[in-house]
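Quick illustration, no need to memorize.
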Amino acid sequence: MIEVPRAEQRAAEPLFWRAAPFIFLIFWSGGYSFAKLGLAHAEPLTLLALRYGLAVLALLPFLMIRKPRWPVSAGHWGAIALTGFLIQCVYFGLAYLAMKRGMNAGTTAIIMALQPILVAAAAPLVAGERGGRYLWLGLALGFAGVVLVILSEGSLGPSPWIAVLLAICALAGITLATLFEKWHGLKTDPVIGGVVQYIVGFAVLLPAARATETMAVDWHPELVIALAYLVIANSLISIGLYIALLQRGDATRISALLYLVPPLAMVLAWAILGEAVTTLAFAGFALSAAGVYIVSRTARR
């Protein structure tokens, strides 16, 4: 068998798949600001239940038109449901709670930017390999950058420690979901995956919202705009691309781009929410980016 050089393989890729990581990056970055915008008019779990219910309704026509191939095994269905729980309930649920508790959108994005280095650190364990000292150096730099941003309350705003804890648990959710997708290797149609994941999110968070929140909704134009963005750009496009790229084996490309989310998210938070951005905030991001770079290089080797 003749091995095709990687550069030629990349050049032969359809334009859509070459652009997909950047589309994901742009839409994912805006999610933090629009979530914060929506949280001014609805409680966190109530907002997510609305988002997931609308996402299911939006996906149903595609499901009927495309008539995709459905999973046949119980294990496959379980894998989709578990990924949905980790992303839609643990990741988004706890991230929204963190922002409702006072964490700014930019700070939340900074913490979530640690996901690539956590995946790179844990992936060798999943694959039965050992990490080197450079990998752990990168991890340390990444965490140091996040701590710098959190502790510098004047840069992105105060972050109550309960909000920090919630955000760290949300980070664990998206990290576990990514590792799980890499581990089981099952291919799922994006529309089916989206419908199942959002049904899981809706089924879990709606009762949780009824039990812990007033479920009062202020149908302000800002909420309508936020929901439109969160459903279309985040739930349909971003999550669909994220899962599809993971299933294509593009986790490294996604991880390499994720460290660009914080500066984009901070700029959008400044433009949409008026959140301050200072040199110290970018210094913390640069430290985290250096950690991600070291870990990514180590993982490729």
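The CA atoms of residues 39 and 100 lie 7 Å apart.
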